[in-house]
Amino acid sequence: MAFFVSHSTDFEEAQPSRYFGLFNANGSASTRVLAVELDIAKAEDVLDINDNHVGIDVNSPVSVQSANASYYSDNEVQKIDMKLVSGDPIQVWVDYEGTTLNVSIAPLENHKPSQPLLSSTSINLTEIVQGRRMFVGFSGSTGSGVVNQYVLGWSFSKSMASLQKIDVSKLPKAPHPSSKNNYTSVLFDVLLGLLAFLVLGLLFGAYMYRGNLYAEVKEEWENVYGPLRYPYKSLYKATKGFSRSEFLGKGGFGEVYKGTLPKNIELREVAVKKVSHEGEEGLKQFVADLDGYLFNHDKPTLPWWRRFAILKDISLALNYLHTEADQVVIHRDIKASNVMLDAEFNGRLGDFGMSRLYERGADPTTTAAVGAVGYMAPELTTLGASTVTDVYAFGVFLLEVTCGRRPVELGVPVEKRSAQMEFSSEEVERVLKVGLLCANLAPDARPSMEQVVQYLNGNVLMPEFWPYSPGIGALTPTLFSPEQLSLKSLSMSSSLSNNSMFITHTINYGSGR
């Protein structure tokens, strides 16, 4: 920092980060300045002698005279060095008379030294000020460094006689930060911050751990399947946190645990399978939509032998619901998009959201006409759902899987109207015939699911029927020659009339495979 005298307060051309904020690299062009600097940085460009000196500057940061910071001790009769950055308060005397400028420094409690540190006899203050007015003050700059500079008190006068002596006892105490204390304080702050961060991390980890205990993994297929969904938290509690004491066994896709649900839930004791997600695809490894394999052209075409096996799987599932379960279960939504495939492409009947149960020997109480367009039996709106309406939907499902065509299609290109694959003529003919029998327009003419299973397995002969048999094929008679008896192709279309859905089957006979 520096004490200065100037003829003006215009320091716009001075460099704020260097040269005490009074000069620039070229000196002082617009403002004439006399400065006494206490410099703690060595600048080679202004010829500083060291980084701890006192200098006299006239219109330039290059000192006309400078000396290492020190004072003359009358008691010791020698000069004693001082460290300007020590933090200890010092006293500075600047005396000017005639053309002589003396500068002295000493510790705050010392008297003024008898010998000045700097003495210049060529300072003409009149040339510097050039007027009746002058300005005195303090200025400083530290560049990129950080330094605390304090002026605790000062006294100025045009004559030595009227200069007031500074009463050191009345000066405020200068802050004297210790580097050790600063280091300790910073270290304490850092440790405190780390401790707070650690505590917050532990709390967040505990929160996430507790959340993960009850976290649910929901996959895309669940948007379509899974009519009843228990919260994972309920299943976690029901199995006592999947305790080993409740462990029942291990299957191909995970472990099975015994669970006890709350009393307000009708089904109290359940088996809960905890599906393993170690595989790359998670639950997608367990299920996929049959509908996607039939109609998504980005997936490989299912070969006929897989289709035939899937049809048998679903026939067994539906037969179980109709004849073997404790109560009769009417699924009411048989269709390809409700059939799931496991990793081995075994068929699994899903989505029981619209299913209904009733005791054996009793009439089903449901009359609501629900289901998917194209799979709904024509009597559904008048007689309601029953096992035979499920059989009708299963018949449409048989035809759909075999032909690779949806029951209702609009604007299908010619090249996509048939599935190109190798197949067994005998098996395909059998499945198509079973599908037509199940989709008979007359409910009483449809087979039971027990019969359907037998037909598909080839254990019993199917009844003979023709395109013009009641409830089979086209609604208008069609005549065919005796030579056209081998089945070639089948297509389906739908028509809606009088709020009832009818599936019209057209069978083309002719020479072929």
From TrEMBL:
Membrane topology reported for the UniProt record: Single-pass type I membrane protein
A Pfam family this chain is assigned to: Lectin_legB
CDD domains (UniProt xref): lectin_legume_LecRK_Arcelin_ConA
Binding residues for ATP: 274
Entry keyword Glycoprotein: no
Subcellular compartments: Membrane
Annotated protein name in UniProt: Protein kinase domain-containing protein
Source organism of this protein record: Brassica napus (Rape)
